[in-house]
What does this fold into?
Amino acid sequence: MPPLPSIPFRKMHGAGNDFIVVRDDAGAFPDRDAAGIARLCAPHVGIACDGLILLRPPTVPGSADFRMVFVNPDGSPAGMCGNGARCAALFAYEEGLAPASMRIETAAGLHTADILPGSRVRIGFPPTVNPVPETITLPLSQTLVSLVSADDLEVHFLDTGVPHAVIPVPLDRLPSLDLPRLGSWVRHHPAFAPAGTNVDFIARPADPSAPIPIRTYERGVEAETLACGTGITAAALVAMHLGWTDSPATLATPSGCRLLVTAAPPTLTGPAATIYTATLDPTPFFAP
It folds into this structure.
């Protein structure tokens, strides 16, 4: 068989959440090849990233400016990615695929996006996103009690396009929290089976005007990421529900970025940027 053709792409990031972004007008990119995508997204031997984004024509012509297909770095599909959607919107605007105010089809519904000054993008979530979380108590094993100095976790669960378990912890505990261990335990807990969940830890600032700090363990990445847009949105809605803050809420990510979330309907505003543009030889990753 002839070699696979090369593929132009951008490496982009939204608040430190980084992605491979590809314009795939013909729908030819092998997004169902999970093993190939895992090789492509791997560090050291691939293009290390938190996910792959494909921009394709909308399923129904005229219903949206484009369709965003998101694939986790382990090759599993995801319905939505807030930071990824900002990158996709900026890509579409700069490539002439969409105007400054656009509609994006995703597997989690129709989203809006607005290109703002200062390389910032606002994503609007569908009105179907329920801002009222379900509260679940998860008893901890003795080996995990010491991580949070509590016998159980109070989890606030909601779906912002993908599932999120939002967990408040003391402010002084958040920076040193063993996120790989505790995040993985919650992510795979039977309460969230079979799909599992993303896990977000937040802390109430001593100063009510200060941004709410957040750390996220992402499903599909299976590790902590520098930011998670759907998680930031979920966490902000939980913080509003708990009375920590009003809308709009500002959250601070480990990458040092601040993102803004409003409620009713939810919106997420934050930065997006291109790191570099390049051409991919898919042969080492995907069989012809």
User: Anything to note?
Assistant: The helical segments are 34-41, 82-94, 142-148, 179-187, 229-241. The chain has a mean pLDDT of 94. The domain at 134-264 is CATH 3.10.310.10 (Diaminopimelate Epimerase; Chain A, domain 1). The first strand starts at residue 7 and ends at 14.
